[in-house]
Amino acid sequence: MIGTLSSLRELNLLSMMLRILLAMLMGGVIGFDRELKGRPAGFRTYMFVAVGAALTVILSQYLDLMLSTLWAEDLAAVGRRTDVVRLGARVISGIGFIGTGTIMVTARHEIKGLTTASCLWASACMGLAIGAGFYECVLLGFLLIVLSIRVLPLVESAVVATARNINVFVEMDTLEHLGDLINRMKESGLTLYDVEIEKSEKGNGFIEASFALRMNRKIPHVELLAMLSELDGIISIEEV
Fold it and tell me: In sequence order, what E strands does 143-230 have?
């Protein structure tokens, strides 16, 4: 087993093919989950990022090998040594441009795309590790990434559904109903920390308000939203 891993860490045709295919497979598995959830970066994006990162490290190893063997005389004549390891560092900084493109702030003051951007960054790091032949670390990292995007959201949803802190977005037909809404919140034992009010950008004359609230006791958020939606003038209400 140890001998096989040692040979796969060498820079040969079999090792390079395995690393590229492994990067494509693992990146694709992570991207497929994001694709199913309709995220900006999906199946092909994650494959490209992982494969590109793996190729970068393989290229670094190839250049280092060539500079130490076939190109050694030419390098000595030039009198300058190139640090090929820095290519991997460029991948990490370069992935920020792609990640930034997936992050957006919605009209309801929600920040979307942070998970997608972080997954892209993690996939790039995974690709670098694959390219370097660090298979043990790659396997553990891959399992943890998949666990984080498949299992942890279920745990997070269960915890958030009964958390005492809640952010609510409300759309009302007129500003006159704002007072009734705030009074109902206070009567229900809610503490209001912050509120932002503005006219709807849809041009329909409606009022949009975002509330940061804390409940004095744990109750299902769905129950709270249903209670507030019964007020007059409420067009829509949802948790953000």
Answer: 165-172, 190-199, 207-215
Distances (CA, A) of 99 to 68, 141, 206, 210, 239: 36, 19, 34, 27, 26
Chosen CATH of 162-239 out of 3.30.70.260, 3.20.20.10, 3.20.20.210, 1.10.10.60: 3.30.70.260
Distance from C-alpha of 44 to C-alpha of 119, rounded to nearest angstrom: 14
pTM summary value: 0.69
What are the residue ranges spanned by the domains of the chain? 2-158, 162-239
How confident is the model at residue 87, as a pLDDT?
Answer: 74
Spatial contact of 195 and 212, defined as CB atoms under 8 Å apart: yes
Do the Cβ atoms of 213 and 167 come closer than 8 Å? yes
Q: What is the pLDDT of residue 78?
A: 67
Specify the amino acid at residue 113. Answer: G
Q: Tell which phi-psi region holds residue 172, choosing left (phi > 0), alpha (psi between -120 and 50) or beta.
A: beta
pLDDT tens digit sequence for 171-230 = 988 888 888 888 888 888 888 888 888 887 776 778 888 898 988 888 888 888 888 888
